[in-house]
Model the fold of this input.
Amino acid sequence: MSIDLKTIFLKYKVLHIIMWLLVGASTFFTYYEAAGPLLPQLANASMVILVSTIPFYTTAYILIPRTLYKKMYIRFIVLLILLVISSGLFMMVSVRAVDHIFAPLRPIIPTDSSQLRFAINIFTWTSLIASFGAGGLKIMSDSFKLRKKLSETEKEKISTELNFLRSQVNPHFLFNVMNTIYFQIDKKNEVARASVEKLSEMLRYQLYECTSDKIDIAKELDYIKNYVAIQTLRLEKGSDIALNIEGEMNNFKIAPLLILPIVENAFKHISHFKEASSNRINIVLCQQDNYFIVDTSNTYDKSNGVPQLINSGGLGVQNLKRRLELLYPGHHELEIKQNGSLFHTILKVQYND
Done:
């Protein structure tokens, strides 16, 4: 069994431990007095490092993400000043309390005003250095992660565009064939003409509409309607297929073909019971606040050994998860769950429009 050092370092924050050990050693040797006892000096250095973690991690994981990144600059400055002062005072009291244990004659709060000012200054500066160090490391780390994410997104976009160009020949050919077949079908056969027309519209959408990063939700919904209509034709007559678009959709944009993998999975894994009405797919598309929600459920037949969607890891689902991570990082939820003979998939996407 191989040991993944990178995983261990990230999971257990080994780098943080090493950093604090180095800072502690530096603090100890900076203020070390050979003539003085060793244990009190070790205790004082340890207390300084322990209390320094408060401004350090508060700045890195609370102040910067929740105020600075959200452009609340005045609030960030005010909270940072309060954090530095309060941490500095707490550090002074803590360190001098430890020192008081080893030297009871030394008061926790200096009685001499000059000593008090010096103690406040030195520990406030220590707190300030901890906060500024945390801020610098946090911003550099986040900047590196952002550049890496942008690079991955750009590579993914280029790869998608190349794959799209490679696959354009067949859809374009089919699109032209569909138009030819449509006019060859007898006008009395309205069902067949309507099916071909829907398929032609779907191909047109893929060829000419899905060329931008975002597309109007109305166009995406039209595509899904056509897809559901065509897929319903191949199922047993009497199957319970429902597509519900709740309320009026505000005019917003989402990534193209984002809904399709979920709807496609429902049709792919639907049951085929002898009683057609027992085969059900329910698709609900709705909007809540700034979230677009896709809620699908379908029956499946466990006796036929249909693989569980939760663990199937189909290519469509894998691609969808990857696209969501790149296009909507931190602004989406995808849940696939099983309840008896029913599979339920919910996608929530927070759009920016």
Q: What stands out?
A: Residues 236-350 form a domain with the Heat Shock Protein 90 fold (CATH 3.30.565.10). Residues 67 and 73 are 7 Å apart (CA to CA). The mean pLDDT is 81.
